[in-house]
Structures are given as structure tokens and as C-alpha cells.
Design goal:
Number of domains: 2
CATH topology of the largest domain: Rossmann fold
Number of helices: 11
Helix content: 25-40%
Strand order of the largest sheet: 5-4-3-2-1-12-13
Structural class: alpha/beta
CATH architecture of the largest domain: 3-Layer(aba) Sandwich
Distance between the termini: 13 Å
Number of strands: 13
Oligomer: single chain
Order of helices and strands: EHHEHEEEHHEEHEEHEEHEHEHH
Strand content: 15-25%
């Protein structure tokens, strides 16, 4: 029996404009009224996702920064892991950040090395915004996630460079083709989902999950009933050959599928 619904946001629960559509919000609210529990699992910042949860109108657990932060529906922190400061300081230097837009996610702040209107437009539902700072001088303390935004081919080369330098001391993944994300080595959406299911005392087999990006792999592997979006990254589809695909995020496929399963 499905007791918990876990979902990614961008490319999954949100539409192509990175916003919440009314049909999805109404569906989730109806399911919550029927007793379902929700988990939002995303690479986005906690403060940003709080606003999106408000638009959805549900009391969801929040897995943010790809699992580096977990909060309960009342915004109490229940899990946190940071990147080691010495690694953050290294990753903020031009040796790695050159050719990208560098971002740091802290508990209550989002720092960026220069203005970026496109990134600002992705947060219209929550209104959460970055602060420009000289990140080459950052102490590295309290950083949940390092994010590089740039051309995908350039980021692939950067990914290889980071893996060669740091090995398994960092968790490196793509949330979208133009977003390369760096967390502590034990961080993942899957590990964070295990934390939430433990809090709720719900077995993994009673959890359904939806995702589309490479950073959703562990989330889908953890849930007992995983589903890939029709618009999922082909690399993720290849890595999870047994996971069924549904429609696309622009078709509100998560909401439609949940209605078929539970309503």
C-alpha cells in the first residue's frame, strides 16, 4: 500500500516553465486529504522549496540540495551534511570555476559569483534570490552544495577533473545538463529519503517516487515503486532499465499517474 509519495521538482513535478500548475496542486491536496504523505526531493535550496511547497498547498517533508538538507513539514531540520571547507575553498578557485557560473548553497543563503537573470527566473514561485559575492574568498564553512552552471560539454570536462582530483571524497552529479552539483560523499536523495521513511516508520516498498535527472537515481533506487518521467535524461533511463516511464512533466504526468494509482 502506497503511504508516501516522493517527487523531484524540475523536469518532474514542475512544468516546463518551472512553475506549479493548478491540476497538480489540486491532485496533491486531494491525496493529502486522503492520508498520503509527501516528500519533495530536489537539488534546489531549502528556502526556495519552502515557497514552492506553499504554492502546492501540502505539508511535505523537504529534501533539498540533493539530500544535504532534510526538513519536516514544520520546517524543523532533521538531517544536514556539509562539504568539507577545504574542498569548497578549492572548488571556488578559477582552476575549477572558470567558464561557469559558480554558486554556493548555505543554510539560509544562496551565493553566486555574478548576476544571472536566467537563474533568477527559475525561482518565480518562491521569490528566493541569490546574493552576489566574491566566492574565491569564501571560508568554505557551512556549504551544503557547490553548483556550477554552464555549457554541458564544458561541465563534462569539469566533472572528470573534479573526480580525478577528489575521487570518492565528493558526491558529483548533474541535476540538469547545464547544472553540475557537488555535495559531501554520503549525500544523496536516496539516503535522505531513507531518513524520512525512518521518521515516518514507513517501509521502502510503500513509497512511490518520480524523477527525471541523474541526481534522482538514488531516490528511485530507494523507493519501492519508482517511475521515470517520459522526458528523463537518457543516461538515467539506461542506468535504470527496469523502471517504467510515464508521461512528461509538461503533461502533468505525475498528477495523472497518481490519480490512476490512488484515486
Amino acid at each position: 500500500m502506497i503511504q508516501v509519495i516522493a517527487s523531484d521538482l524540475d523536469g518532474t513535478l514542475l512544468d516546463a516553465n518551472h512553475t506549479v500548475d493548478a491540476f497538480t496542486a489540486q491532485t496533491l491536496q486531494q491525496l493529502e486529504a486522503n492520508g498520503q504523505r509527501f516528500v519533495i526531493a530536489t537539488g534546489r535550496h531549502y528556502q526556495d522549496v519552502r515557497g514552492i511547497r506553499d504554492v502546492l498547498g501540502i505539508r511535505a517533508y523537504l529534501i533539498t540540495s540533493n539530500g544535504a538538507r532534510v526538513h519536516d513539514p514544520d520546517n524543523n531540520p532533521i538531517h544536514a551534511e556539509n562539504v568539507e571547507p577545504e574542498f569548497v575553498r578549492a572548488l571556488c578557485q578559477p582552476e575549477f570555476s572558470s567558464g561557469t557560473r559558480l554558486n554556493l548553497y548555505l543554510d539560509d543563503d544562496w551565493l553566486i559569483d555574478a548576476e544571472d537573470e536566467r537563474l533568477a527566473s527559475l525561482h518565480q514561485d518562491s521569490g528566493f534570490m541569490y546574493h552576489v559575492a566574491d566566492l574565491t574568498r569564501h571560508s568554505g564553512e557551512g556549504v551544503a552544495k557547490v553548483l556550477y552552471v554552464g555549457d554541458h560539454e564544458h561541465l563534462l570536462l569539469l566533472e572528470d577533473k573534479i573526480r580525478e582530483r577528489f575521487g570518492d571524497e565528493l558526491y558529483v552529479t548533474f541535476s540538469m545538463p547545464d547544472c553540475l552539483e557537488i555535495m559531501a560523499p554520503t549525500v544523496s536523495k536516496g539516503h535522505a529519503l531513507t531518513v524520512v521513511l525512518g521518521e515516518l516508520r514507513v517501509p521502502h516498498e510503500d513509497c512511490v517516487a518520480f524523477g527525471d535527472g541523474l541526481n534522482d537515481k538514488e531516490l528511485l533506487q530507494t523507493a519501492g515503486q519508482p517511475f521515470l518521467m517520459g522526458n528523463a535524461n537518457p543516461k538515467l533511463v539506461a542506468q535504470l532499465p527496469g523502471v517504467p516511464q510515464i508521461g512528461t512533466n509538461d503533461e502533468a504526468a505525475v498528477a495523472h499517474h497518481l490519480r490512476q494509482l490512488l484515486l
